Amino acid sequence: MSVHKTVKRVTTHVLSEMKLKGEKIAMLTGYDYSMARILDSAEIDIILVGDSASNVMAGYETTLPITLDNMIYHAASVVRAVRRALVVVDLPFGTYQGNSMEALASAIRIMKETGAHAVKLEGGSEILESVERILSAGIPVMGHLGLTPQSIHKFGTYVVRARDEEEAARLRSDAGKLEKAGIFALVLEKIPARLAGEVTAGLNIPVIGIGAGQAVDGQVLVLHDMLGITQEFSPRFLRRYHNLYAEISGAVSSYIRDVRSGDFPSEKEQY
Ligand code: KIV
């Protein structure tokens, strides 16, 4: 029997068992109670309260402006909805890069004030001390390498990362260091599929890809992108499962029409 079918609650241990048995892990982002209820009932394995909330919930151009308080608000809403999934929360920009004590304080706030199960940090050797300090407090950490949107102003573009051998070698080395430090899983974003496969084969922890091809242990997408709520963002790796923008817009237009014509509410819809 598959691991994901038998578990009542997804834990970091369940995820490593899934990797061992070659079962793919399904992860999506989630930012609010109502959506998280749907994702959890559909038996998603991991809900990532991503700092992509900065884009899709708050309308900022980058992930940089979202605050720790904002993330705590989103994460607590998600946790209230979840019975089965593992909930991972992004540490937002500026809350862990300064020093490891600040990183630990940020991670502790997330764990205490939201009830989430783990945190995610972007970066490799430059944040290793923060990762180690958070882990030493018993807080599970998910890593994130490749395209790291919090560093957008350093790179200036969202193009595929680690195409050249120097950057690929750094990524391999960072992945190894993060695993050795004790992270429970690693996100690889927008890197060549071959490199992602190589890194995945070399690690014992699960690797979750976004724009990183098939040879990883699981996939993650931003919920609003895969549901077709966002329209302007169309990278090659994105599969849209719905066109919710059109559906919602159609429903709202029908409502406006019915209100204006006096068709809504009908006699049956009043007291
Ligand atoms: O914030 C986010 O949505 C993410 C995913 C793209 C992995 O970090």
Bound molecules: 3-methyl-2-oxobutanoic acid
How is the main sheet built? 8 strands, parallel, barrel
- State the CATH topology of the largest domain: TIM Barrel
**What is the global morphology?**
globular
**End-to-end distance:** 52 Å
CATH architecture of the largest domain: Alpha-Beta Barrel
Total count of helical runs of at least 4 residues: 12
Q: Based on helices, strands and strand pairing, what is the structural class?
A: alpha/beta
Question: Going by CATH, what is the homologous superfamily of the largest domain?
Answer: Phosphoenolpyruvate-binding domains
Instruction: Please state the CA-atom Rg, rounded to the nearest Å.
Output: 20 Å
Give the amount of beta strand, in percent.
5-15%
How would you portray this structure in words?
The chain has about 270 residues and is α/β, with parallel strands linked by helices. The chain has two domains: about 5-240, Alpha-Beta Barrel (TIM Barrel), CATH 3.20.20; about 245-270, no CATH class. Helices cover about 45% and strands about 15% of the residues. It is built from twelve helices and eight strands. The chain has helices at about 5, 10-20, 35-40, 55, 70-80, 100-115, 130-135, 150-155, 165-180, 195-200, 225, 245-260; strands at about 25-30, 45-50, 85-90, 120, 140-145, 185-190, 205-210, 220. It has an eight-stranded parallel beta barrel, surrounded by seven helices. α3 crosses α5 (about 70-80) and α5 (about 70-80) packs parallel to α6 (about 100-115). The longest helix has 18 residues, at about 245-260. The chain binds 3-methyl-2-oxobutanoic acid. 3-methyl-2-oxobutanoic acid binds near residues 50, 90, 187, 210 and 220. 3-methyl-2-oxobutanoic acid binds next to β6.
